What does this fold into?
Amino acid sequence: MNFKITLLPGDGIGPEVVGEAVRVLETVASKYKHTFDFQERLMGGCSIDKYGSSLTDETLADCVASDAVLLGAVGGPKWDDPKAKDRPERGLLALRKGLGVFANLRPIKVHPALMEWSPLKPEKLQGVDILVIRELTGGLYFGFPKGRDVKDGRERAVDTLEYYDYEIRRIMNLAFELAKGRRKKVTSVDKANVLESSRLWRQIASSIGTENPDIELEHTLVDTAAMKLITGPAWMDVVVTENMFGDILTDEASVLAGSMGMLPSASLGEAGSKSGSEARMGLYEPIHGSAPDIAGKGIANPIGTILSTAMMLRHSFNLESEAAAIEKAVDETIIAGSRTADIGGKLNTRQMAEEIIKRL
Ligand code: IPM
Ligand code: MG
It folds into this structure.
């Protein structure tokens, strides 16, 4: 089969990890007789430097026209001026919105061989296998009004937490659908004791729960969820939550796995959002950032990005065996003791990728 993939390596370590992930995809292509056509574009700080915009209309159009998008990371101290009119992060948000990828899947698994790298005791980590589904195109990140003004002689800043019923319904439906192939439990995280948007969230979660009696639904307040992620993470299966809560909880959850460098993500649009099929638009990226402190050294862990390509094969291209082959190769590589610096080893980015590629 033939697929067109847009690469947005971005800033910092982004290009280093995306380069290795592409080599993994090329290996899969030749082994399973697929053709992946790659086109590379600028997004983030590098795009501000070249075009004066973190995401140009042309780049967004090229992403929309491709079968999937693979992103490295954006941002860095060079573009951190709070007064700047554009920021790398704005490009990322515009990309998510422009692609309509409303569901951000962040699976958190703890590899037994890496438990010592987690700050939690190994007995707490036994059996941890969580899928966080973060709403990605609504909530505080996108609600209006938003901005600054002067009111009654005082400077004021406003962000708005807004959700429409259909936005909650579609992410909740996806959460229940994915829970069916897992341990059949959905934890819906909100702040319904305080926020109106959370009360609508909870109401819709409950009604979809009633339609799916085979799935256990539980409502948890976000502050409690933050605590339970540390005290009893094995108790969670699918966790579904609004944009900002999901942003915070997934950084917290990532430390369970020992290193952020290990974790992939997939951001998906509506079923049928790719023309002529049931396929969903998909944006794939590791959950780590641009890591300016190690950028350019070639020592970043490429596993989060490589596992993101496995999610791409599964969710956008429907290539389950190829996806599973990448995950198995990563697993075996970890078991064999291969380690980058973030997990206590000496391999560089290229060497780690080589270890995975040779097991494919
Ligand atoms: C993430 C990041 C982004 C977010 C930033 C870079 C805008 O933290 O993907 O979790 O807040 O969504
Ligand atoms: Mg984040």
Q: What stands out?
A: The pocket of 3-isopropylmalic acid (ligand 1) is lined by residues 89, 92, 247 (CB under 6 Å). The chain has two domains: 1-102+263-360, 119-257.
